[in-house]
Amino acid sequence: MQLQVLGCSGGIGAGQRTTSLLLDDRILIDAGTGVGDLSFEALLNIDHVFLTHAHMDHIACLPMLLDTAFGSRAEPVTVHATQASIDVLRRHIFNWHIWPDFAAIPDSRNPFLRFAVMEQGDRVDIPGGHITALPALHTVPAVAYALHSDDGCIVFSGDTADHAPFWEAVNQIDDLSALIIETAFADQDADLARTALHFSPGALLNALGQMQHETDVWITHLKPADHALIMQQLHDDPAQGRRFARLQPGQRLDF
Ligand SMILES: [Zn+2]
Ligand SMILES: [Zn+2]
After folding, report:
1. Where is the signal peptide (predicted)?
2. How many Å apart are CA 255 and CA 212, to the nearest integer?
3. Distance 219 CA to ligand 1 centre (A)
4. How much distance in Å is there from the Cα of 138 to the middle of ligand 1?
5. CA of 53 to the centre of ligand 2 (A)
């Protein structure tokens, strides 16, 4: 399988796109502004969207993806998310005020948008593998995802602060290929990171003590103003033997 990074920034601006990953050709993991770079043909290929949570930077392009593909696809698009996230999307986005309710058009028996509830621990089989929702800790209900192919597994944290059940779940994966984890704020904003339930470098370095794998760690969701500083603060810790790298838009991870 191949995971392509469409967006991995904590903000926008030239060259910056918010969280979205494309798994092979038909599955999106989150639907931030990175989705907007896909061609029309590539947008029509999207059958499934797995959402970590309903914050704007992770769903921004979902409404417009549906609007763009509507009428050009025979099959509906399925959005997998927790019941809490689905409730928020229904109430606040697909409510005919912000955007049409694609779960009711062209009619509610054959809608273009289908929701599928996926809670922590749930597994969905996909061609060539499966996806499992893992525990995460954020200001709204959120999950991480383990993306399993026949040859390995990539864990994507979504937005989270330190959360023991997340690490316990990661440690149970015996073929982990890579960990993609957020570090939204630099250390001088550690208080803000704690309040917003995001990682800062010091908090991540502490938390990684719970991970038993030697796997490389890819950093995502960095605030644009502090990209370089966040990576410097991660690399500066002399006790760490881990390799950190900043996830890059356009990057492809094979696993
Ligand atoms: Zn969030
Ligand atoms: Zn976010």
Report:
1. none
2. 20
3. 15
4. 7
5. 8
CATH class of domain segment(s) 2-254: alpha beta
Is 70 exceeded by the pLDDT of residue 226? yes
Determine contact, residues 234/183, Cβ cutoff 8 Å.
Answer: yes
List pLDDT tens digits, range 3-28. 999 999 999 999 999 999 999 999 99
Tokens of 162: 């330190």
Strands 153-156 and 113-117: unpaired
pLDDT, tens digit, 9 for 90 and up, residues 72-115 = 999 999 999 999 999 999 999 999 999 999 999 999 999 999 99
Å from CA of 140 to ligand 1 middle: 7
First to last CA, the chain: 6
- CA of 140 from ligand 2 middle (Å) equals 11
* CA 221 to ligand 2 center in whole angstroms: 7
Whole-number Å distance between alpha carbons of 146 and 173? 9
Query: Ligand 1 centre and the CA of 202: distance in Å?
Result: 19
Q: Is the dihedral of CA 104, 110, 114, 115 positive or negative?
A: positive
Expressed in angstroms and rounded, the spacing between residue 57 Cα and the centre of ligand 2 is: 5
User: What's the CA-to-centroid distance between 144 and ligand 1, angstroms?
Assistant: 12
Q: What are the start-end ranges of the H helices in the chain?
A: 40-44, 56-59, 62-69, 83-92, 164-171, 190-196, 201-207, 227-235
Sheet order of strands, 129-135 included:
123-126, 129-135, 143-149, 153-156, 176-182, 217-220, 244-246
Residue 141: asked if its preceding bond is cis (omega within 30°), the reply is no
Taking only the tens place, the pLDDT of each residue in 140-162 is 999 999 999 999 999 999 999 99
Q: Would you mind telling me the total number of residues written for the chain in this entry?
A: 255
